[in-house]
Each structure stands twice: as C-alpha cells, then as structure tokens.
Design brief:
Length: 206
C-alpha cells in the first residue's frame, strides 16, 4: 500500500477517535486538561493496522521515541484499527505494552492509559454506565508524559476527585445515553448537533 492510500485508510479511524475525544472526553469534561492540548494541536493520532502483539508493541515504542524527539506534541493516541476488539485480549496487550515500556527504561517518563469499546472497571458490572468514562469507539493506547501529569496534579488540588466525579456523571446520564453517543462517534459524516435528538431517533442502537 502506497503512502497516499495508507493515509486515506487511516482517515476514518482517526476521525472516529478525534470525534470521541472532542464530543465525549472534552464535551463532558472527563479530562479537564484535554481541551487545551486538543485546541493547540498537540494531540497526535497514530493508527496501527494489524493483529500481532509484537508489531503493536513495536509501534508503541516508536511512538515513545517520537515523543522523545518532539516536545511540541503533548500526547499520542495509538489507535488499534484492526485487532483487540475482545476486551480481555486488549488487557493482555496492555500488560505486554506496559512491560515493554518498563524494559525500555520509560517508566516514570511516560504512562499508558487505556480505552476500549467494551472497557470494564475491575469489580464493576459490564452494564455499569461508569465504564463509559473509559469506553472509546476503537481500542486505544494513550501515551502520556509523566511530567505533564505531575504539573496537572500540582495545578489542581481536586484532581484526585476527577475519576469519582466522572463516574457519577456517567451514571446520572445512563447507559443508553453513552451507548448512543459512542455510536454517533462511529458515524464520522454525521452532523447531528444534539445527542438527545440522536438518541431519540436511534433507539434500536441502545
């Protein structure tokens, strides 16, 4: 596949994840620090095609090296376009990726965050709306700079309350709301302005 064809192939998954980031993560303030980086163009979207763990981990390490060399990029979303749709397979990949990060002496420099269409917090029911705080339209490995996390913690005395606040918000909206919102993110050419409108006309998705 030539570079132009590959770029076109990557357009759709990037559009889906970018829309989710804008409409869900930023739109509902799941991460109070995301808006500035998004507006500043400091979020990098990288698409991995394939289903081999070794190749996916290699792509992850490449992205860590890229961040080393590009201080103007704050964070990378490594989008797994083809594989790891099963959540437990994804967790296995996440464990392998974390070990690779540590083996490459990046522990304390970068941190991995995880997002998946079927994300489920340990000990929570699969249909708990709180899981949607970490559910995304496609499996994603999120690479964060530890230094940025430390600055965020120092700048916001309430940062430790963010997860509990997000879960409370997610549960107050309910599963149907978030399920429909994720479905909206998957429709990259949809110009719906109100999620309530979308939910009402797509009950079969809920």
């Amino acid at each position: 596949m030539d570079s132009e064809a590959q770029q076109q192939e990557h357009t759709a998954p990037i559009a889906k994840v970018r829309r989710w980031l804008q409409e869900v993560v930023i739109g509902y303030n799941f991460c109070p620090f995301a808006q500035r980086e998004f507006d500043g163009g400091r979020v990098r979207y990288c698409v991995f095609e394939g289903r081999k763990t070794k190749a996916a981990v290699a792509a992850l390490l490449d992205e860590l090296h890229f961040l080393d060399q590009h201080d103007d990029i704050e964070t990378t979303l490594l989008i797994l376009a083809d594989g790891w749709r099963d959540f437990y397979d994804y967790l296995s990949l996440l464990d392998t990726a974390q070990q690779a990060l540590e083996d490459a002496a990046y522990e304390g420099v970068y941190q991995l965050a995880s997002f998946h269409p079927d994300y489920m917090f340990d000990g929570e029911d699969a249909d708990d709306a709180a899981n949607y705080t970490n559910r995304s339209p496609l499996p994603v490995l999120h690479l964060l700079r530890e230094s940025s996390i430390e600055r965020a913690i120092a700048s916001d005395p309430n940062v430790e309350q963010i997860p509990a606040h997000n879960q409370q918000l997610a549960r107050s909206k309910g599963v149907d709301f978030w399920r429909a919102l994720l479905a909206l993110a998957l429709i990259t050419n949809c110009r719906c302005l109100r999620i309530e409108w979308f939910i009402d006309r797509n009950r079969h998705l809920c």
